[in-house]
Amino acid sequence: MQPLQAGAQAPDFTLQNQNNEAISLASLRGKRVLVYFYPKAMTPGCTVQACSLRDTKAELEALNTVVLGISPDPVKRLTKFIERDNLNFDLLSDEDHAVADLFGVWGPKKFMGREYDGIHRLSFLIDEQGNVAHRFDKFKTKDHHEVVLNYLNGL
User: Does the 14-138 domain belong in CATH 3.40.30.10?
Assistant: First the structure.
């Protein structure tokens, strides 16, 4: 697993959102985009992370930043997650983990003694020109939004 580094060109991608609409990274040029990868919709840690981003959406928008959450969940599960938790940003379905592979966040994991391949919880701030400005890899789900806002406010 080799996650993208700051300074790299972010791979362009198009994925289906919770409404089964195609969302592409290229269509968001001119804005900062927080692309955050999470393992599974509606699980405790992923819910805490998503709800914290939901609650800070206005602050992120004031900093010209759009949030995109990406997981290997099917569109139907993303729709349920959005509805259940009143999420106010797009969640994208990467069922074949092709985009996770491009960003270098798909790889071996261990949980309760079991080894398997899955998404590693990493986030990337893509700048207005489509480059990786920063990679967030040291955070807890409950403070992810604070780490991102602190970074953006320090720019």
Answer: yes
Contacts of 103 (CB under 8 A, 6+ apart): 3, 4, 10, 11, 35, 37, 122, 124
H/E element, 33: strand 32-37
Residue 26 tokens read as 């290229």
**Distance from C-alpha of 48 to C-alpha of 109, rounded to nearest angstrom:** 21
pTM above 0.90, yes or no: yes
What are the strands, taking DSSP E only, across 46-87? 65-71
Q: What separation in angstroms does the CA of 78 have from each of 15, 63, 100, 148?
A: 12, 26, 17, 23
Q: Which residues are catalytic?
A: 46
For 84-126, how does the pLDDT look when each residue is reduced to its tens digit (9 = 90+)? 999 999 999 999 999 999 999 999 998 888 898 999 999 999 9
Q: Where are the domains of the chain?
A: 14-138
